[in-house]
Design a protein that fits this description.
The complex is a heterodimer of chains A (322) and B (188). Chain A is of the alpha/beta class and 322 residues long. Chain A is built from eleven helices and 14 strands. Chain A folds into two domains: 72 residues, no CATH class; 176 residues. Chain B is flat, with a radius of gyration of 22 Å. The chains are: A alpha/beta (322), B alpha+beta (188).
Chain lengths: 322, 188
């Protein structure tokens, strides 16, 4: 809780004098008497510490209503830091919005209450979960969404690339450090996500399902500290050395993890190990693990690789070592 | 529950009857203390029940009263209405030596009474009861609009507040002028 504002301090001195019964009677009389009638005690007669305790029982959305009651209650409501762990927003085809705060079970509908919450002075949300609830058809929206927030991280679940970009536009670039994109059914023009300002200013990215992965896509990741991708579809081991060479030029790079689902058996870890000059035992092995350290030319830095194949699943972990 | 009797804070109270306590007899004889509110009705309360109140518990510890002294000098809480103090005493007796439940549904429904109870409980420093009371006051306005909150909590608007303040100042000014005039008249 911050400093108690003057309007509340005055109220506190008054209420404490009543509560403790230690104020000169005349002073109390003056303050309580309106016209010829005794005023009934109200919540405003309570010390600020009590009012804060009472308001603390209301959830942050309900507390926003206190701000419009009177000046003292506005100050009281503003004494609660408006910093939230997460907000989950779900939009449907008609732009109808439902949302939840801090994983609480209560669901809110509409923009009005959200606006009141986000308008709180100093409002901050650390994590934003954005979902597109359209089961039958995709969005046809060609206008920007009305919501704008500044989270540190965003987690997007949508059906098309267009929806991803529109939802991503809710998160203002700048404070946004991490982006996670859940599997998108229609990945047409997926690279356009990489051209958004949000993506270009992010530091950490996770794409849960990326159909195809090639050097052009990887080149968009050059500014990232870390990335995690799950790749389905085209991925051949010939591209592996190219990946190594490209990543070795990423200045900000710290770690990455690639999960590859190779249902068509295109990927053979033995070919990679051969290219990397790493020996692996002959004969059938359920799990094959290849460790490799690559010295980045003209630097004292290395890339440390751990490649693991377990039937159709391949995991590649790369970390920069200084 | 404790029973009550009429008495005064200055005179030793007549023997008040005690509330039926729990069935199990305590091994050590329990000490009793006496409190009264604005209505001067004296309540006999066991030390165990009074432990809920940090304020009274502190007073007992510091004063080191014998039972006789305690009977002769009930703790006066002139700022607490009699019926409110009765509610507090009842609650302390009901929850004596027991873990407090997560909710208390026996709090007054009438808002003025509830507000008075909150102030009394806050003054007497009864932590658990204060938690219940504050929650109940908050639940009165759950999901309500600002206008509804203003009505339920009986809160004046800023304009009404300012008008009342102005009126009070005006009245004080008039009274002060009257007193000065009276004093001048006396001097003559």
């Amino acid at each position: 809780m911050g400093n108690i504002p003057e309007s509340m301090k005055a109220m506190d001195r008054y209420s404490e004098s009543i509560a403790l019964g230690d104020a000169p009677k005349k002073q109390v009389f003056d303050m309580m008497e309106i016209g010829d009638d005794w005023r009934k005690k109200t919540i405003m007669d309570m010390p600020v510490s009590l009012m804060l305790k009472i308001a603390g029982n209301l959830d942050p959305v309900e507390r926003t209503a206190l701000r419009s009651v009177n000046r003292a209650l506005k100050d009281l409501a503003d004494d609660f830091p408006p910093i939230f762990e997460n907000i989950e927003l779900a939009l449907d085809n008609n732009d109808d919005l439902s949302w939840r705060l801090n994983d609480r079970p209560r669901k809110y509908s509409g923009y009005e209450k959200l606006d009141k919450l986000t308008d709180l002075p100093g409002f901050k949300v650390k994590h934003l979960r954005l979902r597109c609830d359209n089961y039958r058809s995709t969005w046809n929206r060609n206008y920007p969404l009305e919501i704008s927030l500044s989270p540190k991280s965003v987690d997007i679940s949508a059906n098309t690339t267009k929806e991803v970009i529109q939802l991503l536009s809710i998160a203002k670039p700048g404070d946004l450090e991490s982006i996670r994109i859940w599997p998108v059914d229609d990945q047409h023009n997926f690279s356009s996500i990489f051209n958004t300002e949000q993506f270009q200013l992010a530091k950490n990215v996770e794409v849960i399902s990326l159909k195809g992965f090639h050097r052009q896509i990887l080149s968009h990741f050059s500014h990232l500290k870390s990335f995690k991708v799950k790749i389905t579809g085209d991925f051949v081991e010939e591209g592996f050395e190219q990946i190594r060479d490209i990543i070795s030029n990423f200045e900000e790079f710290e770690t990455c993890q690639m999960g590859i689902v190779d249902l068509s058996n295109q990927f053979d870890i033995r070919n990679i190990s051969k290219a990397l000059e790493v020996d692996i035992p002959f004969g059938p092995l359920k799990t094959i693990i290849v460790h490799h350290r690559y010295e980045i030319p003209k630097t004292k830095k290395c890339l440390d690789f751990k490649i693991e194949q377990n039937e159709h699943r391949i995991s590649v972990k790369i970390a920069k070592i200084c | 529950m404790s029973s009550t009797e009429q008495g005064t804070s200055s005179a030793a109270p007549a023997e008040p009857t005690t509330a039926p306590e729990s069935a199990a007899a305590p091994e050590v004889p329990e000490s009793f203390y006496y409190v009264h509110g604005k209505d001067k009705v004296v309540h006999k309360v066991s030390a165990g029940a009074l432990q809920h109140s940090a304020l009274i518990h502190g007073m007992i510890s510091n004063l080191g009263y014998t039972e006789e002294q305690a009977k002769a000098n009930p703790f006066p809480f002139e700022n607490i209405d009699g019926d409110i103090l009765q509610m507090v005493v009842d609650w302390c007796n009901q929850h004596k030596g027991k873990p407090t439940p997560p909710e208390d549904t026996n709090l007054p429904k009438q808002k003025e009474k509830l507000f008075d109870l909150v102030l009394a409980v806050n003054y007497l420093e009864i932590k658990e009861l204060l938690t219940y009371c504050c929650k109940q006051v908050a639940m009165m306005v759950k999901g309500k609009s600002p206008e509804e909150i203003r009505e339920i909590w009986m809160i004046p608007t800023d304009a009404e507040d300012e008008a009342a303040e102005k009126e009070a100042k005006k009245r004080a000014g008039k009274e002060a002028a009257g007193e000065t005039a009276a004093a001048a008249g006396d001097a003559k």
